[in-house]
What does this fold into?
Amino acid sequence: MFGRLAVAAIIVLALVWPRPANAEMIELNGGDWVQGALKEATPAGVVVEVGGQTIRFSTDRVRAIYFAAPSQPAQAQPAPAQATSAQPAPSQLPPVSPPPPASAQPTPTGSTAGDALQVVKSLRSAVLGGMSFREYQARVNAAATVVDRYLAALPGGPESESIHDAVRYYVLAESAWNNQGVVSRTAWLRKDGVLDRCPAYREFAETMRTKGDAYYAERVRNYVFISDGVISVLWSCASEKIAEAETFLVNAKK
It folds into this structure.
């Protein structure tokens, strides 16, 4: 009960306390630290943006929110408004947690596969919304870094493998998009063992192979020359792995 009250107090403070647009440190139960831009803090959960990806944590997982100190000089900040009867007195507000030492770095310890999956699902939502290659490249690189750190701290399991594969498909799509021939409508796809684990890709590759070398060819050791339609196929492969991971996580709770 005390833990829930503490989290509720943190949420109230996050909503009413004036703060600069600096990164916050989110301390999770179990010793996990997440650094990012706090987007929302409500009884339904805490939302933070990390590396361009939006991650939501339930309130029972959040232990504390540390607000970074303003980077501007104190005199540059607007003067605080005088307290009115509509504002709580300072004594009624919970104390502001001091920011952790600068050397403290967010670690994935205590994270769950669900946290990693949420990052990948946020990436999928961004892809469905449409974006330029540069935007896609930045989002994929950021998501891959965060997910790799999460998975490295988790025991192996089928859900972790599915999440890993989903990220790999997004990374491979980024590489193919970067090596796309606009006129020829082809791309150089990096060879990766994860490709054999996606039926949609295997079917697409076989179809292109039957059309001839203009659509599919293995001309070099580490890449496949293939129709650029493979990019959207890889995204569908990622979606399949996301659904697979969700199923594993649901079954694990039964």
User: Anything to note?
Assistant: The two ends are 26 Å apart (CA to CA). Residues 113-253 form one domain.
